[in-house]
Design goal:
mainly alpha; 59% helix; 4 helices
């Protein structure tokens, strides 16, 4: 089914860049995006999934949560000296 859509200039430029970098047609990219949109609609992320990329990001040893104020002071002080 043919479909015409007016895209804002910014979106059109991003689509063009994506298609060139991934070597796909605009139609294929839009179809893929729509399929992903419809597949993900029913599955809303829970709190764990939303924050997963931030958890465990501090690789320092010890109890970072307990000593967060001290560690933050050390970090700010070292950044000021640079």
């Amino acid at each position: 089914m043919p479909l015409s859509v007016r895209l804002p200039l910014r979106v059109e430029q991003k689509l063009e860049e994506y298609c060139v970098s991934h070597k796909v047609t605009k139609s294929a990219a839009v179809k893929r995006a729509l399929e992903q949109l419809f597949d993900d609609t029913g599955a809303q992320p829970n709190a764990w999934q939303l924050g997963k990329r931030f958890m465990g990001s501090d690789k320092r040893r010890g109890d970072v949560a307990r000593h967060s104020k001290r560690l933050l002071r050390v970090l700010v002080k070292s950044n000021r000296q640079d």
